[in-house]
Amino acid sequence: MASSVNPTVRRRRLGQELRRLRELKGMTAEEVAERLLVSQSKISRLENGRRSISQRDVRDLCGVYEVEDQRIVDSLMQMAKDSRQQGWWHAFGDIPYSVYIGLETDAESLRTYEPQIITGLLQTRAYAEALIQGALPETSVADVEKRVQVRIRRQERISAENNPLRLWVVLDEASLRRVVGGKQVMREQLEHVAEMSQLPHITVQVLPFDVGAHPGINGQYSILEFADAADSSVVYIEGVTSDLYLEKAPDVQKYTVMYEHLRAQALNVEQSRQRIEDVAKEYAR
């Protein structure tokens, strides 16, 4: 469930407002950095919401931008304070993709393409455990369990009674055929996907092998959209050592168009559910 104060989203909104104030002042990030005797990269990280921001940072930036309205300063200071609170995911320790979890927790809708695996929000516990063990063979049993718990907790967003996350998933057929955890695990996993796909806020499509080359051939990505107009859409691309977040309108538009092509080339909803159920039966033999 989305919390009333989401630190990730607060940092994004605060960063956007600080960027707006800088641009109104006609200053570059480099000029601000020189005034405050900090690195330009720090200013950039503060503005893109990837770095925690202190009330002192806000005070110093408001001074540089000559913000005279104390109400604006106080509001930004409060946002900085809220942004330093911890989300539910912090209770699990160091999570590599914690920024993404914060965005997902507050998102109104999520569109994702998965070329190799079943998307995390639709994974069963057994599948998630086998997947993490296989993908991270040197991870301890305790860390595997922690990651599984986080994945299961994330799924509360699609099972919430009020305002559940609207989820649209395009699965490459390879994700149905890649045996993770054994045939029994795969059968239960695909049956779960088929069942979840019948919920009104969840759409699942399968991109069959015979489509050939397609716009998603380069790999997985997700598009997150938010109810608040102040929060721009985000394209998330997961990496091995670092993740990529794209927020510029042209980038988001490009990936959105790619996704529309994927949806058009995939099997329709009924055909996709039938394909998933048929493959699940194959694992039962």
UniProtKB/TrEMBL annotation:
PROSITE patterns: HTH_CROC1. InterPro entries: Cro/C1-type_HTH, DUF5753, Lambda_DNA-bd_dom_sf. Gene3D superfamilies: lambda repressor-like DNA-binding domains (1.10.260.40). SMART domains: HTH_XRE. Residues 18-72 form the HTH cro/C1-type domain. CDD domains: HTH_XRE (cd00093). This is Helix-turn-helix domain-containing protein. The lineage of its organism: Bacteria, Bacillati, Actinomycetota, Actinomycetes, Kitasatosporales.
